[in-house]
Amino acid sequence: MLDFLSQTIFSPIAAFLLPSSWQPYAVYTLEIIVKIFAILIPVLLTVAYLPYAERKIIGYIQNRIGPNRVGFFGYKLVGLGQPIADAVKLIFKEIIIPNGANRTLFIMAPILSVAPSLAAWAVIPFNDTLVLADINAGLLYVIALTSLAVYGIIIAGWASNSKYAFLGAMRSVAQIVAYEIAMGFALVGVLIAAGSLNLGEIVRAQNGWFIHWFWLPLFPLLCVYFISGVAETNRAPFDVAEGESEIVAGFHVEYGGMAFSVFFMAEYANMIIVAFMASLLFFGGWLSPFQGIPIIGAPSVFWLLAKTSFFLLLFLWFRATFPRYRYDQIMRLGWKVFIPITIVWIVVAAVLVVLEVPPWFN
Amino acid sequence: MVELVVFYFFGAVLVISASMVVTIRNPVFAALFLVLCFFSSAAIWLLMQAEFLAIALVLVYVGAVMVLFLFVVMMLDINIARIREGFVRFLPFGVIVALLMLIAISLIVGSGYFEMKMPAAPASAVSGYSNTTELGKALFSNYLYPFEVAGVILLVAIIAAISLTMRKPRSSKAQQPSLQVKVKKGERLKVLHVKAEPKQDQGG
Prior knowledge:
- The complex is a heterodimer.
- Chain A has helices at 2-17, 23-61, 82-91, 103-119, 138-159, 163-194, 199-205, 219-232, 244-247, 257-281, 301-321, 327-354.
- By secondary structure, chain A is an all-alpha fold.
- Chain A is 65% helix and 0% strand.
- Chain A is globular.
- The longest helix of chain A is centred in the first third of the chain and has 39 residues, at 23-61.
- By secondary structure, chain B is mainly alpha-helical.
- Chain B has helices at residues 2-23, 27-47, 51-75, 80-83, 87-109, 131-140, 144-165, 177-182, 185-188.
- Classes of the chains: A mainly alpha, B mainly alpha.
């Protein structure tokens, strides 16, 4: 498909417009842009429909129906038109910039929060060969980019020039800094087990069926990683940065319209990243849980998507189940519980690898 | 060719943002320009095929250190007008100190002890080269002792930082969830058996 595009469309255009020494670069750049669109359009569609799924699932958990009115062409279609109606509403709303706000940073903050969560998709592999940038330090790249998401929040909090927004930003920064350490340590355990920082290599190191994946030997790290992921994305029960009941809406209290919805998109894109990473690092990525059985045992991108959907369901389930943590309890959990657990389990993982314990490390 | 363009682009961004860090008045913007500065130097390191160092720079300095910096700078209410008040009065002292430092630096750099030989550019890495692996091998073989010493110094710094913040005895009463959970009904609740008295007539 891509070869066809580049041979029939990009190459002739480049040959027509540019000197011959520049043509390969131009064709290469165009190919990469096509690949970026091929990854980001499904991601953004998921980002649009995840809030719909959230409202539906939490609705059913609470014995309600959820959105069921907006459809297409007069058919209600269980409310499937809701995300599109919401998007249209948000796009046509006025973006209000408060009087005392710092204009430049106020506009920049949502962009800074969504950019890293989209850029992280560059290194995510979808199957053995399907990856945009197959770099050696892929895992490190994803950690670095998720740690950048905090800038959008902190800048939004400061630029709004509002007490609620600033309180939300401060809470969020302290929380993200605390949980980033636990998250990083949990991933150290994974890379000890896999012996590589490349995401594709990590999945290949888990080759086998359900029992061979890293979730079993690294189970505490999986728990720590996923809970830290929930905390890093500021999702319930760790959503004190928004904290409707005490600080209204936290860091994005002054934002409206599209500027607010960009924050919203960043949050959901980050959730999808965390779910993808959990299924790649601990649940064998595209490997089948029934490896060895014909047809359903074949590795496929659909397994990866199914695992990701499961983790996304957990995000929504948490939100419907748990009350919000108190702030000091969040800090206590991050610093005094998760970090010691991860450090102990890094040692355990290293021992398992050195002793070549079957069936994972032989 | 393309690499050269990219290098000069990030080099220019690096120099401009570094000079903005010291010249811009708003300290929050200064901290953000420092972030941009780290970013462009990370990009230049990436061009030199040092991907581990480049991403570690972003992770450690941009993702952690600068967040805390920005956090502190945002909490300060800095009055820029008052800082600039004594500019003319202190200018002569500033100029003298700057001249002294200029003389000192030129004495060292011009003395011949500091001769910089331009090292030859290393050969481009072969495919399959992993910067992370090479770095790990070097750290845990040739430089194991300095690496361990640096680790111990960092550990001491962590302990020092924790002990500095804990210098006074705790005055606030904190809840301990682990104790709260273990509480049994019998420790808190006492059921008194009060002997029932015969009902007395309400007076009159």
